[in-house]
Design a protein that fits this description.
The complex is a heterodimer of chains A (182) and B (151). Chain A is an alpha+beta fold and 182 residues long. Chain A contains three helices and five strands; from the N terminus they run H-E-E-H-E-E-E-H. In chain A, the strands form two sheets. Chain A has a three-stranded antiparallel beta sheet. Chain A has a two-stranded antiparallel sheet with strand order 4-5. Classes of the chains: A alpha+beta (182), B alpha+beta (151).
Chain lengths: 182, 151
């Protein structure tokens, strides 16, 4: 395989040498192949996730970047998602933990309610009729004091909350009917 | 093909394409046996080893590049250097403790040439006689203590 590789590379180098060196930019620093399941360290060095993982397992008590010897950890690498990438897993890597997730923060919501814009947009207010003894339309003042946001769609948490919300809607409907009939 | 073989083929290809100054390999012999490379080194111009020729033997294990290769001088000209024993073993931290998978045959060769170049007096390590008598054949089995980073 290598011999043909060599010939191909040799033949191509005359015509598309620049393309080849561009590809070298995206080669894993360990296997020297185009990085697969690419991750980049905080110090900016590119690796295949399987390669880097093997290296970190090789010296569990001294985890350093293979290129610059900076401190490195599994949690502190960023996966790279190219447009053409497919997330097909190589079945040979059963033992391999999945690549760490990218960290994504929600953008700040600003000016959602222009009338109630209290500076930081973290002020919510709702009005309702207080009906004995459970407020169906409870009135509440919520200062957005660091409550966790709604779960991401698709997560298990999200599905659970959907079910709960349907259950409460059903109870509320029964209450309304009962109030009207009584 | 294992990842070790793949990586060695890749290194061979790069070495053939851009051989560093003073480093030569015998491609034919490497194709016959991929896990043992003999590399011809030349002493750098402005060094005590100018004009001298040396041979390095690299042996690669299955865990290469995660594990360092065995590297030693062979042949009839072993450089006289405070970190090179007369049996060819080399006291160099990147060959054991400071090995990194981002290093390669090329970078190891360059490190060794540079180690030779910074030498100011040609002499054997002080414990040469004892070491050569007692050491294992595999230099990686030696517990090296890296204390001298001047040469």
């Amino acid at each position: 395989m290598s011999a043909t590789d060599g010939e191909e590379a040799g033949g191509a180098s005359g015509t598309s040498g620049s393309a080849e060196s561009e590809n070298a930019m995206f080669e894993c620093n360990i296997c020297l192949d185009t990085a697969r399941d690419a991750v980049v360290s905080m110090c900016g060095h590119l690796f295949c996730w399987p390669c880097l993982h093997t290296w970190l397992e090789t010296r569990p008590n001294r985890k350093t970047c293979p290129v610059c010897k900076a401190g490195i950890s599994k949690e502190q690498v960023v996966p790279i998602y190219g447009r053409g990438s497919t997330d097909k897993k190589d079945p040979r890597e059963k033992e391999m933990p999945p690549r760490p997730q990218g960290q994504r923060s929600e953008p700040e919501q600003q000016g959602a309610f222009p009338g109630f814009g209290f500076g930081d947009g973290g002020f919510h207010m709702s009005f309702g009729i207080g009906a004995f003894p459970f407020g169906i339309f409870a009135s509440s003042f919520n200062f957005n004091n660091g409550r966790p946001g709604p779960p991401q769609p698709g997560s298990a948490n999200h599905a659970e909350e959907q079910v709960l919300s349907k259950v409460f809607l059903f109870i509320a409907a029964i209450f309304m009917v009962w109030l009207l009939l009584a | 093909m294992t990842s070790m073989e793949k990586r060695l083929h890749k290194e061979l290809q790069l070495l053939q394409k851009e051989p560093p100054h003073g480093v030569k390999i015998d491609v034919e012999s490497i194709h016959r046996n991929l896990t043992e490379w003999i590399v011809d080194l030349e002493g750098a111009q402005e060094s005590l080893y100018r004009g001298e020729k040396f041979q390095l033997l690299f042996k690669f294990g299955d865990r290469y590049p995660f594990d360092s290769p065995q590297v030693m001088f062979i042949g009839n000209n072993i450089p006289v250097h405070p970190h090179v024993y007369s049996n060819g073993h080399i006291c160099l931290s990147i060959l054991t403790d400071d090995w990194s998978p981002a290093l390669s045959v090329t970078s190891v060769c360059l490190s060794i040439v540079s180690m030779l170049s910074s030498c100011t007096e040609k002499k054997r390590p002080p414990d040469n006689a004892l070491y050569v008598k007692t050491c294992s054949k595999n230099p990686k089995k030696t517990r090296w203590f890296y204390h001298d980073d001047e040469v």
